[in-house]
Amino acid sequence: MSLEIHDISKAFGGFRALDGVRLTIETGSLFGIIGPNGAGKSTLFSVVSGFARADEGQIRLDGQSLDSLSPPARARAGMVRTFQVPREFRHLTVRENLMAAAPKQTGESLLGLFFRPGRVREEEGAIAERVNQTIRFLKLSAVADQPSGKLSGGQKKLLELGRALMVEPRLILLDEPFAGVNPVLIGEIMERITELNTRGIGFAIIEHDLEALTRLVPQLAVMDRGKVLAQGAPQAVLDDPLVREAYLGGVS
Amino acid sequence: MEAYFIAIGIIALIYVILSLGLTLQYGLTGLINFGHVGFFAIGAYTSALLALKGVPLVFSFAAAAALAGLAAWPLGLVSLRLRDDYFAIVTLGFSEVVRIVITSERWLTNGVQGLPGIPRLYEGLGGSAAQLAVLVTVLAVTLVGAWIIRRIAGSPFGRLIEAIRDNEEAVQALGKDPARFKVQVLVVGAALAGIAGAFYAHYITYIVPDQFIPLVTFYVWMAIIMGGVGRVSGAIVGTAILMLFLEGSRFLRDIVPGVSEVDMASVRIGAVGLLLVLFIMYRPQGLMGDYTKR
Ligand SMILES: Nc1ncnc2c1ncn2[C@@H]1O[C@H](COP(=O)(O)OP(=O)(O)O)[C@@H](O)[C@H]1O
Ligand SMILES: [Mg+2]
To answer: Which residue's C-alpha comes closest to atom 6 of ligand 1?
Structure first.
């Protein structure tokens, strides 16, 4: 069971942001992606999640080809991405943001809304319960009823993670989930991610804080200039001469 | 005097119904529809033509809503591929196309001469009783419309369209198709405009293409901006302010000598425009507050 990224290339104008990227990410695993700014990490997530179209290559999730699927269809197939720059629904409260993310709501159809009000109420109750759990889990209780646009950068990152969790996917693509989050909280989120992972949810995590990431994931890939330089266990990857030369500038 | 207030009331409520549609489309979903009058026109002509052929008004009203809603369908599909600003231009173009079509298809619409003698509602009652009955009917329909929009706004559907307004890509990332929701919102708003058009046609009893110019759309926009975007109460209060100004300026013409109707029309548009600018400068959230003030 895995996400297979097969020889993906993507150019913006003449610039090759992704250049034959090949990666296999076990669906239930914790997988890290590191690389300098502009390496193509976020672009890779955009292509994988369907927001950007690849020029070449194929993507499969647990054997199913995703190439012809729209972004929402890919999310429904079990893979949800977050954004590097948080995209909160800024006029909705934290609670409403999370409620909006719950899948398959009868009340999201106009017919359901007007002709099955009992069922809608029941579902809302159940969703509200899950949202409460998620809010406690992410320690967002204090801001639960504030408009999400007013949150700090770190809180918005947590909200993005929470929304992704509400979808109940098998694999979550996190784009720099720790950026702007205070260090104490980073430790807690990492614990949460590990905990979620033991429940079977996989994570692919882009991060440029190398140290934080190597503590969290057993497997990682290093990207640079649109290419995967190496992948494997953190120490082995960091010892790879190619990586040391290109990414770490040959520092010993 | 009483008849005058009833007449103003009917027109105001027709504008409220139009504003409710735009509250759903723009206030809640963020769709910039500059072609609202197009659906209003489709509703007016549909119901008028059917009624002139002897179709009972219940059915002609239903057809007005259905046809206006149906016309929004392709526009909804187009909206999914367009940026907000292009969508605004396309809708404006759509309403102008509607006006040009009803102007040129003389065999059907009688062109610029328009359709006279459209049957009134409650013709049997006669006189002021009929007027009052019309007012009550429009009021009832307005209340039902307001109830529907409020119900939608407070529902999971409403939550999702507000999410679409705030960030469409994030909605997609969560596995939901903004397209589906936008099409529904456009259709519902257009159907409301269609009903408003039908009321208008049967109240005025004489419609011509020139009554369906983009200015009508912009009056509705002014109403919701002054009242407060994204709120049902805002649609109502905003329409009240608009009517006060439009009618107030008419009243002014009657007491100030030497001002022609043409002069006054310009003054009126200028005054409403000025009012709008003042609102945007000093109270951008409108009188009733908008979605940013929750
Ligand atoms: N939409 C775009 N148009 C043009 N260039 C882009 C676009 N998105 C990304 N790029 C370029 O592609 C390269 C990779 O960007 P990105 O994937 O965001 O890098 P990373 O996430 O690894 O920092 C950068 O040089 C960036 O400027
Ligand atoms: Mg990035």
So the answer is: A12
CATH 3.40.50.300 fits A2-88+151-246, yes or no: yes
Task: Give contacts of A120 with chain B, Cβ < 8 Å.
Answer: 155-156
Tokens of A205: 């995590």
Tell me which chain B residues have a C-beta less than 8 angstroms from the C-beta of A101: 174
Contact A71 B173 (CB under 8 A): yes
How is chain B split into domains, by residue range?
A: 2-212
**φ, ψ at A224 (rounded to 5°):** -155, 135
| Domain spans in chain A, listed from the N-terminal domain onward | 2-88+151-246, 90-149
For this complex, say whether ipTM is above 0.90: yes
- The tens digit of pLDDT for each residue in A59-114 reads 999 999 999 999 999 999 999 999 999 999 999 999 999 999 999 999 999 999 99
Measured between CA atoms, how close is A120 to chain B, in angstroms? 8
Q: What would the DSSP string read from start to end of B200-234?
A: HHHHH--B-GGGGSHHHHHHHHHHHHHH-TT-HHH
Residues with Cβ within 8 Å of residue B149, at least 6 apart in sequence: B20, B23, B24, B232
CB contact under 8 A, B175 and A72: yes
Residue A37 Cβ < 6 Å to ligand 1: yes
Instruction: Give the residue whose CA is nearest to atom 8 of ligand 1.
Output: A43
H or E element that contains B124: none
A195-222 residue pLDDT tens: 999 999 999 999 877 777 888 999 999 9
What number of other Cβ atoms are within 10 A of residue B261's Cβ? 9
* Chain A residue numbers touching B157 (CB-CB < 8 A): 107-110, 113
